[in-house]
Specification:
globular, Rossmann fold, eight-stranded mixed beta sheet, alpha/beta, 41% helix, 9 helices, 252 residues, single chain
Length: 252
Amino acid sequence: MAPHVPVEYHTRHGLVAAEQIGSGPPLILMHGNTMTAASQRRLAQRLAVHGRVTSVDLLGHGGSARPAGLFSHAYVRMQGEAVADVLAQHDDAPVVLVGMSIGGMAAANAALVHPGRVRALVLDGIVRHIDAPIVAVHRQQLAALAPEWQRAMARAHGADWWPVLADGVITAMTALATSRADAIPGLESLAVPVLLCQGGADPFCPPEHHRAIAAALPHAQQLFCATAGHLLAWQSAATFDAAVAALLAAHP
């Protein structure tokens, strides 16, 4: 595997840590809740066939800043603002944004801030509104983490911070569900090319949520796998990679 080079970006919400791999046209990769750029290295390696991949640690994750007020109904908005600030610093060519779950919601928000800087958008397993069942799935999944995963998360985020992050994600998801806030306001106005990925057995993004996203983006290219769970990038890697390649070939 090629080396992953650490880089940093200064944003309105503090430092965003990242890793870069590859060369050529820029892509930015955003992970989901409780993950890190390091956990996405194999995916970054796959995407690096298309150019230089910058894989970020979302706010509150890995080496990135832990701003006050993050774990609230502002969680997705703040993540999107930080990604938008990272995007604004990629001024060499239009950028492909690839977002997983919450990272995809942040990517969509960043694209709405700087649409002229975005070549294409890959959104894998995203929702527009958090509801009580989605909060319950987050809670169940975190409670069921095996001891080896708990140790891995402690290494990734810091032993003292990992329990704070785990609780904070639940707090943020609960606040979003309670407020019924639109996590991607203005989604219908998104005009950049989009690949929308969805697994039919995804507990974090149930079918009704996917249908709402698809209705807001009627011109998006759809990648749907009926038997797949959360995140087609991992659940159906070869199909996902082929769809990304086709999207980028269509929008050079």
